[in-house]
Amino acid sequence: MIPNVMPRYRIGALLGAALGLAYGLTSQAITPLMLPGIPLYQPPLGLVGNIALSVAWGALLGLLCAWPTSGIAGTLFSSVASVLAAMVRFVFDLRSVGQDVPRVIMAVVIIGLPMIVVTAPAMGALRWAVARQVAADTPIARRLIVPLLGCVLVAAAGAFAVGQPSARALLARTHTLIEAGLRVTDAASLPAALRSPRVGAFFEQARGGYTLEWTDRNLDGFIELRPANSYERHSAVIARFTSGWTLVCLYPTAEAEPNCGGY
Q: How far is Cα 83 from Cα 113, in angstroms, rounded to an integer?
């Protein structure tokens, strides 16, 4: 019994790590590749760190999926683990916008339970792929087909993490705006959006490097930048400088000039 168990959980971890690498590479690298030269904000660990985290998380899920003797148990354990991780992030997102604890718990139950059902087929497919690698009567060439196909499918899913075209356009516009501001030497020469009183002392604050993030969530935190019209079309690009200063440029529409403020 032990000779079968040892290869199974090792193969599960390796296959999970390969799938995590495929997803991490595409989900984390596709937007930087489409916006070369633009410093993007990629929480929590940056480009390389997030790819490494994806590999580690894939290996853990593969291990949980392959470890139990029962395929059903392995599928259930890995499904629950993947949903729990998603729910932890979901809880932090809800708490960050001021949702009270009972509503957070209700949202987790309502969303989390169906997610277990949705993720179970994917974890079941992973368990089946691991079983094919363990089976001694499966030719090596045929064993490789399933992992390679899985990596291609997961990489394709990761490619959907690329931002929408309007978000990429606004990131590029904001980058151009900030770089134009950093090139001049007097306030009168700053681009109009950076001369706003809400921005403050751009030259004194905009020191060191910076990263850019596009968002259309929690914009009421910058309510003073939001006009009363086109609320549903508002979005913002947040520039985080290494000096600790943050510049927010809120775009009422993708075509409009931004309202910028310093924080």
A: 8
